[in-house]
Amino acid sequence: MTLRIRGMTKAYGGLRVVDDVSFEVSSTAVTGIIGPNGAGKSTLFSLVTGFLDGDAGSVSFADKDLSRASPMARARAGMVRTFQVPREFTHLTVRENLLTAAPNQSGEGLLDVFLRPGRIRQEEERIRAEADAMIAFLKLDRVADSPAGGLSGGQKKLVELGRALMTGARLILLDEPFAGVNPVLIETISDRVRELNARGIGFLIIEHDLAALTKLASVLHVMDRGRLIASGAPSVVLSDPQVRDAYLGGAAA
Amino acid sequence: MRDIIELASIGLVSGLVIGLAALAVTLVFGIARFANAATGDTMTLGAYAALIGTAWTGSFLAGGALGIAAGAATGLLAYHFVFKKLEQRSSVASLLASIGVGFVIRAVLGLVFGHGQQVFQLPMVRPFRIYDIRVQPNDLKIAAAAIVTLVVVFLILHATPIGRRMRAVADDPMLAKVSGIAPKRVMIALWALAGGVSAVAGVLLGMKTVVSPEMGWEMLLPAFAAAVLGGIGHPVGAVVAGILLGVAQEVVSPLVGFTYKIALTYAVLLGVLLFRPRGLFGRNEGVR
Amino acid sequence: MTVTRRQTLAGLAGALSLPAFSGVSFAQAGGTFRIGALNPVTGAGSPYGSGMQKMILAAVEAVNAAGGAAGRKLEVFAEDTQTQPQAAVLAAKKLIEVNKVQAVLGTWASGVSLAVMPLTNEAGAILMNTSGAPALSVAPANAKGLGYRFQATNDRFGRAFAEIAVKEGFKRAATMAFNNASGIGNTEGFRKAWEAKGNKVVESVVYEPNQASYRGELQKVLAAKPDVIVTGSYLADTTIILREWFQTGENTKWIIPGWAANPELVKAVGNEVAEGLFSVDSVSNEQAPSFKVYDEAYRKAMNQGGLSNVYAAMTWDMVITLALAMEAAGPNADVAAINAKIREVANPEGTKVYSFAEGKEALKKGKINYEGASSVLDFDQFGDVTPDFGVSIVSKGTIERKYVVKI
To answer: What CATH number does domain A1-78+170-253 carry, 3.40.50.300, 2.40.50.140, 3.40.50.2300, 3.40.50.720?
Structure first.
């Protein structure tokens, strides 16, 4: 499944924060987006996932045009994002956080608890099994029943990743997954991403940690001041003089 | 010593009843994010419905069940006709509307049943003694009913998917929506649950005392005080705070004078708001 | 005879303006005396309110039929207090400002009377009430001496309780009072009279309204082992307290005011719990001829015996007393002059009279002393009366009058 972005543009006043960006992301690959601060990377994510309305451009995923779709509809189509500052249900346990992310559990209400307990229990067991597998996979066993608010930054990102995976997404957009995370956890997260990608889930990752990202991604796109200035394999892109200039002008790697 | 334990047990029972009312308040505050002033009048309505049910069937249990159903229905109707329409407005608008809803319920009850008192004809029984402490069988039954209600509510909140979703909405409504939790189902569950719990509180209070159109409205402030003391939005906190207030009132009053009973509640409330506004169990909520 | 156009127009104008005068009844020389009947037709006092109002109207009719008072007919404007101070104040304002009444008769609840009295004082109008609160006797409420209370004060109730307790041979009395002026007035009145007889109150408790339980309060009182508990209470709290008391298994008697110890209470707590309760209420002047006159009027208007509504007897008396004072003050007397005559016509020294017609006749010969249907109506310096008290005991579910106590 391919994510196709065509001519994405967003301007605030006269300033084009995202300027005619087009590229494709395959769900078989791990794709990275890099660029100095303020290049428009997070804004691009918001535009792609429907949290922001673009001034121009189109988005399609798995050959479905999602340009007008709501964030929830896009999530249902299989495309989900995480946030720079992780958001989780602070008072729910890690397990419960994962459980709430499971897609629409036939909309059970309060009455069903009393009238159809059997059906509910069946569904519960199914998603609990999924969540347990996810917890094991993400190596969160020890904190599975602790409130998610008490976790470290890196653990929270794993939880967020888990929630994204629980939705059954085919393409996950990660916004700075390694920021503020200790190196061991970065390794863990990277391993998980690689494994998931091998199972057929695509990733589009914004990152500043170029070392970690280049080990992971097979394709890199570079943005600067709203425009896409380079695309290709990491080694090629990183030796591109235009890219180096952009970085020297802004935050260094 | 025996006296103190007896007083504490009296306070425990009244505290459980207040705690139930506070639970209803705190559930609505946590999930729908406003203070529901119609909680008291829903209690009253539940009590009257239970009176009718008991008169029809001769069974207190059946009457109570009718009361709970009436309370849940009231909550749902109030949500559908009033609160749903105010969801996008400020919480003050909903609070004011809830005062109006309460007035309407109270007025209708007064018209239909008159302003005189009615009572549940519970059988009169003498207390029995455990280690020389007098225990009232009726009080035991009331406490048991309250505890069963609490257990059911907490089971719903923590062991069912809808309960989990309700807690998610209470935690972070925006994230809940983005995660695909349908708000409508959660709200329906909330209002039915809060209405049912209010009704139980009303029925139990009516059994302990008398049923009159104003009875629930008069319990509103203690219920709110307990909800705030417990940490508004925190279900366990509301119940614990209710019990604490009930016990404190009974144990302290013989010393300082019974006219300070009500003042004690407000002194506690004031102290909490001044020194620990988030209450006993509450969190330091940041605004997202 | 030709009628000029001017005359026709004048006649027409006169005829058309007649409706504007409909509020004022055409009376003989001196005009009418306007009375406001301000009673609890709805609300907590509604069991008594309409009877009270009808008796004002009936008494006014009797006075007017006897030729009016000092050449003036009485005119009544009737309003409902709803037993709420706020509604009562609005009604009182209308009576005073629009109807220009010179006296307001029959406010029932203490809260209502206390709220209305400043208005009547300012208008220089007389207020006759049936409330219990002690505050109505003295300044600031009754600073102008325009207030007359036809019901016993709570204090007097307490004194009656003390008489009863002595008569029944109780030695260890305790009190429980609702935390308001009325409740505390009852038990304080009891305490003073009880201690004056050389006894002690073994325990006294004041309790808050709307509690889920009164066991703590009961426990404290019962710990002092009283043989009787005297209350200043209302129906709801009495119901709860009695039920909780019965379930403690402790033995004690109860003396309770009649507005709380009534058939509703017996119905709520059941015959077993209510057995032996003393219910005390002020009673009308039942042996007097004036009571007969009132009773006849009450039966005619309400289809019930006059005994069923002690407050209606009071409002009947209010009109008669006022009319006799007017008669004594002479034609064209203002309210202040009439006010000065009220004690003169109602208090001792004078021929005892029992109706307006009788009194009007007797005034031609000298002083009179109107003995009313509600009480002998001897007003003290505060404008308060001392009625008799009926003592009833609940026996197998019925409240039976046993005897009358005079204080």
So the answer is: 3.40.50.300
